[in-house]
């Protein structure tokens, strides 16, 4: 039987009630990395809204790994308690709580979008950013200080991801996602645009993918065997005019990640350089990349980007383009996207009993 948007899905022992996932979306609303009422209400509402998986925003594995001083973090044991409140509420609504573990690399230390996304220097409350090579993001004006990671410091990054995953488990999350997309630290290692290293972490495909593989293996190693690990990648840098990260390399990496026990590759794109040329920004603009990775490997894939309607999300799953429909901005517009999708598609989904008197009559 063909899967639909409301077919359940299992990863190891984790049962996901439907194929809608809330895409990770930074809220820039934390102080010192702590989750607060905003995060509980924001993520909690999307769980009330029926999404099968509710993923946190990029959650920094170290203070320097934050995009802005307002990012969510999990670099200390003190962060666990407020995250646990969120995972347990999400779970109580029948959704699967997931956390994205992240390091922003050279794109760290910026003000939040509504304050301009400008680099913040250490004297003004920012910090020195770290990257595979001394190639700063081409900011207009002075880029923030950037430090090229030593091999020993790279091992420290792997340890930060390990400790973050242990805490995430403690905080009750069921799925850990490694963020290796959008031009942040792990993607910076993958792409020859940002990785000019001449050691074991630069040059060949094998070397550029080493850190992503090490981090994934480490997270997989501390994450229980019965729970899933996802990895988000950018399928392409959209920089075909230069030596860059592309779909062919993404297929190879997805294969390697499958061998490492990754349960789903979350397929996004771009973020390495402002010169990127996005061929199309219409509905489902990144879905074809997920489809290629799904066709050419054995790993399950999630498709994200421009999925805005129930019928489109259902089409992605039922035509086998991807196993999960990952919905970002439409979830900002409509926290009840999944419940509304069930209505549109005539699928059986329970509204919370508190809201039952409002359930639309067919
Ligand atoms: C994002 N995106 C994003 N991606 C990610 O991997 N981690 C993150 O923390 C964020 N943060 C974030 C914040 C906001 C406000 C937006 C709008 C986006 C990207 C997001 O997850 C998604 O991939 C894109 O928005 C494309 O999907 P949609 O929005 O077209 O469904």
UniProtKB/TrEMBL annotation:
Among Pfam families, the record links this protein to: Oxidored_FMN (PF00724)
Q: Which domain of life is it from?
A: Archaea
Cofactor(s) it depends on: FMN
Which InterPro entries does the entry mention? Aldolase_TIM, OxRdtase_FMN_N, YqjM-like
Keyword set includes Flavoprotein: yes
Q: Which UniProt keywords apply?
A: Flavoprotein, FMN, NADP, Oxidoreductase
Write down the Gene3D superfamilies for this protein, in alphabetical order: Aldolase class I
Q: Where is this region: Disordered?
A: 107-127
Q: Domain NADH:flavin oxidoreductase/NADH oxidase N-terminal spans what residues?
A: 5-346
In alphabetical order, the GO MF annotations are: FMN binding; NADP binding; NADPH dehydrogenase activity
Q: What is this protein called?
A: NADH-dependent flavin oxidoreductase
* Organism name: Haloferax mediterranei (strain ATCC 33500 / DSM 1411 / JCM 8866 / NBRC 14739 / NCIMB 2177 / R-4) (Halobacterium mediterranei)
Lineage of the organism: Archaea, Methanobacteriati, Methanobacteriota, Stenosarchaea group, Halobacteria
